[in-house]
Write a structure and sequence with these properties.
The chain is of the alpha/beta class. It has nine helices and ten strands. Helix 8 links the parallel strand 9 and strand 10. The structure holds 5'-O-[(R)-(carboxyoxy)(hydroxy)phosphoryl]adenosine and zinc ion (ZN). Zinc ion binds next to helix 3.
């Protein structure tokens, strides 16, 4: 039989629903939103409207693909935050109506913890072992960059975080300067494969402790391009791949410097990667090389679990269900949410 959890994710611009039976993933349906592309970033008002259109068909499909009826669901887990308020409201309101109709509990989930929890999903694409506790997770997404000490499924401590932009923002904002469409991270990744990562040098922050900063890199990239374009208006077009590769190398070096330091200081060598930017092929490769050098046990999620998805919400909901962590029906979404 097992415990069946329906997960709902609607924090940004992907509407997603997933079903798990215990730790096993039965379905994970994601509807992206093309509407934002022409604006060069997510437009909150349009995102909530698209969630409103997508949520019922996406949940229907997730249940059908899982072969699960509504009556078999034990609880519904939803993203309470952090995220765009209007987007979160769609997921949380849907969950309230759905659980009230079925007389089952609802479970709030922190989106960032959920990114980390993908390492506990059992599925055909993630058949391997999960990390042992405690482990360190480098969580890199569009809105957040954090080093997290994961003590168990529920207790996670942020030991380092960005003081300005997130790594994903650095990819996206610099990509925009190169004339690439939103989100720019995947385009930079693709271009970087053809380029020389050592061709250009950009500023790296000098921060104490485990905190990150990416705004200096963004400014240094902007000024560099501005100066070069004065000399040669075709500079970007003629050097795009090298620019992408050099930018990507710098972001990866910034990320890995602190991770290496945190592992050394804590003595923890169980290392995991999570969040949208962990789809980056250069980062994945660099982590593997680093793991080889320092004898880390490395856990890199399958690509489809890196960007926003409801499988991560469902698995987190499953562990919260086991502890009886249910939410009351006056729970409201949180644009900022800490753990
Ligand atoms: O975790 P996520 O899906 O959404 C947030 O919770 O923010 O992360 C989205 C971020 C975007 O900034 C996007 O450009 C970046 O992940 N991203 C990548 C790649 N795929 C997605 N960045 C670099 N390389 C990629 N392959
Ligand atoms: Zn995310």
């Amino acid at each position: 039989m097992g415990t069946v959890i329906l997960g709902i994710e609607s924090s940004c611009d992907d509407t997603s629903a997933a079903v798990v039976r215990d730790r096993r993933l039965l379905s994970n349906v994601i509807a992206g939103q093309e509407v934002h592309r022409k604006y060069g970033g997510v437009v909150p008002e349009l995102a909530s409207r698209a969630h409103q259109q997508n949520i019922v068909p996406v949940v229907d499909r997730a249940l059908k693909e899982a072969g699960v009826s509504r009556q078999e669901i034990h609880a519904v887990a939803f993203t309470r935050g952090p995220g765009l308020l209007g987007s979160l409201l769609v997921g949380s309101s849907f969950t309230k109506g759905f659980t009230a109709a079925l007389g089952i509990p609802m479970i709030e989930v922190n989106h960032l913890q959920a990114h980390i929890m993908v390492h506990f999903i059992q599925s055909e694409i993630s058949p391997g072992p999960s990390p042992d506790f405690p482990f360190l997770c480098l969580l890199v997404s569009g809105g957040h960059t954090q080093l997290v000490l994961v003590r168990n499924h529920h207790h996670m401590e942020i030991i380092g975080k960005t003081i300005d932009d997130a790594a994903g923002e650095a990819f996206d904002k610099c990509a925009k300067l190169l004339g690439l469409s939103y989100p720019g991270g995947p385009h930079v990744d693709k271009l970087a494969r053809e380029g020389d990562p050592l061709r250009f040098t950009f500023n790296k922050p000098r921060l104490e402790g485990f905190d990150y900063s990416f705004s200096g890199l963004k400014t240094s990239f902007l000024y560099f391009l501005r100066d070069q374009l004065k000399e040669d208006p075709n500079f970007i077009d003629q050097n795009k791949a090298d620019l992408a590769a050099s930018l990507q190398r710098t972001i990866i070096e910034i990320l890995l410097n602190k991770l290496r330091k945190a592992s050394r200081k804590t003595g923890i060598r169980q290392i995991a990667l999570a969040g949208g930017v962990s789809a980056n092929s250069g980062l994945r490769k660099a982590m593997e090389e680093e793991a080889g050098k320092h004898d880390w046990d490395l856990f890199i999620p399958p690509l489809s679990f890196t960007t926003d998805n409801a499988a991560m919400i469902a698995i987190t909901g499953y562990y919260r269900y086991l502890e009886g962590h249910f939410s009351s029906d006056d729970t409201t979404p949180l644009a900022r949410m800490y753990f």
